[in-house]
């Protein structure tokens, strides 16, 4: 198996078999266009208290500094759009957190894909990434032709919208590279107009320190009082900019059983959330990404929404 085209087809076919929505490949090289954008974003403190965003600036922009000898970045999308959502009278969770923590689900699939590449092609070295290292996931996915970065700064595709996770394999193998797709946001400003905290300060720029996802998950201190009454009942994450996006009319229901919610989750009411015990929290969110905010963090968010 020494033909670049055949290798590429083989990898994409296996990615599909493993359940990935799509697979795109780009050359592992310095992200020239992203460098000034990231620098400006950091200089304006739009990362809030996410100090880690300031670390490993070079590695964030150059995968060859992250994975020695790397030649290709394989970007993969995994759908998480649910078949049903929470009851209307509930504090809200971002849809991505309904089921099993995506880090575990995707890591297993990535390991399987890397093992497959090694078995079929030979000695290939690389690393798997699921938003837990200095990798600009959305930039690589866009560079790999999987979609364009929308005005809300999420990756968008015409076929299935934006409710999917992005992951990468960075490997030391030459492959055929995909070309960038075009932007189809046009004159639409639905996401900008709908953002409850005006976090989208201009098209394609999100002030992370104002984003509800940041305030309810990343921020460990008290939520600033200026956001009182502006959180739209979101207690963990926020989907507003995706929910209003016209392209998400084309979202398709996922087929990953591990992303199905805990049986009790969708029927929990506001009153139930207000009275939630640590035992219930541990039961409902046993393997969930919600564990990241911890019981006390979720209680803080609910208390803030009620204040």
Automatic annotation (TrEMBL):
InterPro entries: 4Fe4S_Fe-S-bd (IPR017896), 4Fe4S_Fe_S_CS (IPR017900), QueG (IPR004453), QueG_DUF1730 (IPR013542). GO terms for cellular component: cytoplasm. The keyword tRNA processing applies. Its EC number is 1.17.99.6. TRNA binds at residue 220. [4Fe-4S] cluster 1 binds at residues 185, 188, 191, 245. GO terms for biological process: tRNA queuosine(34) biosynthetic process. Binds 2 [4Fe-4S] clusters per monomer. [4Fe-4S] cluster 2 binds at residues 195, 211, 238, 241. The active site is at residue 131. Gene3D superfamilies: 3.30.70.20. One of its GO terms (molecular function) is epoxyqueuosine reductase activity. Residues 176-205 form the 4Fe-4S ferredoxin-type domain. Pathway: tRNA modification; tRNA-queuosine biosynthesis. It is found in: Cytoplasm. Monomer. Belongs to the QueG family. Catalyzes the conversion of epoxyqueuosine (oQ) to queuosine (Q), which is a hypermodified base found in the wobble positions of tRNA(Asp), tRNA(Asn), tRNA(His) and tRNA(Tyr). NCBIfam families: tRNA epoxyqueuosine(34) reductase QueG. This is Epoxyqueuosine reductase. It comes from Pseudalgibacter alginicilyticus. The lineage of its organism: Bacteria, Pseudomonadati, Bacteroidota, Flavobacteriia, Flavobacteriales. The gene is queG.
